[in-house]
Please model this.
Amino acid sequence: MLVQLLVSISFLFLLLVFLVLFFIRHQSKVPYYRLTQDQCITLLKKAIQGVLPEYEWHAFIGMTVRDDDVLDELREQCLLIDELGVKGTQLINGRICINFNKKGISQLELLLDEWQHKSKYLV
Model:
C-alpha cells in the first residue's frame, strides 16, 4: 500500500513537471500586436486616404494596450473617431475599407500631424 502511494505521488509530480515545462515552452508563442511609430503613421495615412482595410482598423482599435499609455491614448482617440466619424465601408481593390466622414478625416489628420512629429517613439 505504501508502494502504491509513493508511485502515485511520483506520477503526479512528474505530470506536474511535464505540464509546467509544456506551458513554459508554448507561452512564448502567444501572438501579440506591437506597432512602431512608422506603422501608426502608415495606419493613419491609409485611414485618411480611405484605403485602410476594415480588419486592420478594427484590430487596432480593438486591441488592449497594457504596457504603453501613449499608444493606448492613440487607440482611444481612434475609437472615438470610429464612433463618430465613420461614414461606412467601401470596396477598394477587392478589400473592404473604412470610409470616414469629413469630421473623422479632420480628426485623423490632427492625429497624423501629431504622430509625424513625435521624436523617436517606439511602441
Observations:
- Strands lie at 86-92, 95-100.
- The two ends are 59 Å apart (CA to CA).
- DSSP finds five helices and two strands in the chain.
- The first strand starts at residue 86 and ends at 92.
